[in-house]
Amino acid sequence: MGDLFSDDEPGTTQTVGTGLMGGGYPAVVRDASVVIKAPVGTTLESIPLPRPPAGDGELTPQEQQTFEACKAGVDNLHKAFWIAGKSLETMKTGNLHRNSGVPNFAEYVWINWEISESHAQRLMSEWRIGETLAGLGWRPRESQVRELTPVAKSHGEAAAVAVYDTVARAGARVTSSALKDVVSQLPASSSGQSPADVARVVRNILEPAPLARATESRNGAVDPSGEPGRSAESADATEGQADRKPDPTESEDVRRLMQTLAHLKDAARGISRPVVRRAIDEHPEAAVLMVTEIAAALGKIERAIAVRKTTR
Q1: Burial of residue 99, with CB atoms counted within 10 A of its CB: 0-12 exposed, 13-18 middle, 19 or more buried
Q2: Across residues 109-114, what is the average pLDDT?
Q3: Is the pTM of this model over 0.90?
Q4: Number of domain units in the chain
Q5: Angle at Cα 26 formed by Cα 24 and Cα 27, nearest 5°?
Q6: Which domain holds residue 296?
Q7: Considering 51, 146, 283, 287, which has the largest number of Cβ atoms within 10 A of its Cβ?
Q8: In a shared domain, residues 121 and 35
Q9: Residue 155 within a domain
């Protein structure tokens, strides 16, 4: 089976994401072929988290519902690999295929979707990175995220996300080869650093300005002030660094706030008073419980952001 997600195909165009400071997940939902109001299994939120099986016998109604959602999620492989990856992990962890007549999970996946065992393992290891990048407004290909897995293993998934996001916001077309090149240049000393630190390292890899200034210095360039060995560009760069304001997206805490805002905006699009009323009329007990939990979650968020009232 060929690589479904190669980003170097002729005619392939680069999807422009919104990044950390853009519209976030709502933007990707608006433009993507996988939309929030799509059938169960075609959005990440509609697939339950992986959990152990309820037993060894027949699937419970809840397990059967989860199984159907996961199968739909894998069918959606061509549209969003991170949904397929989560679906595969949920099925495998819960042994949801146990009544399918094919006890071996790898064989079950191959029979139904012709996904090799190694490919399935990759998808299961990549879906969390893909989900986070989607929340930031990007639509990465699986082949691109594959190049970030070494970073995720050594520095954590947040660092892997920082690499992609930094490359994407640099303005160049994001490809698997470009990401591979950047990852290969990450120093070993960056292990254990924060995502913001990793992002700074990536920017240094991408920016050729220091090398250009060093070349001009060796050539005896002179800046407008007449100082030998210092170019005008170098002088401007030094002045710019002095005036440079901190980039808020370099902060992991700011990243979390941006993700929270994106998800809240997304949630607000899908709920209204009529929706709540109909849900309570149709399934009062379940609906009231969910409304209560939503209110509790919003209350927690409101208490957390109340700190803004004390800041200047």
Answers
A1: middle
A2: 94
A3: no
A4: 3
A5: 70
A6: 249-310
A7: 146
A8: yes
A9: no
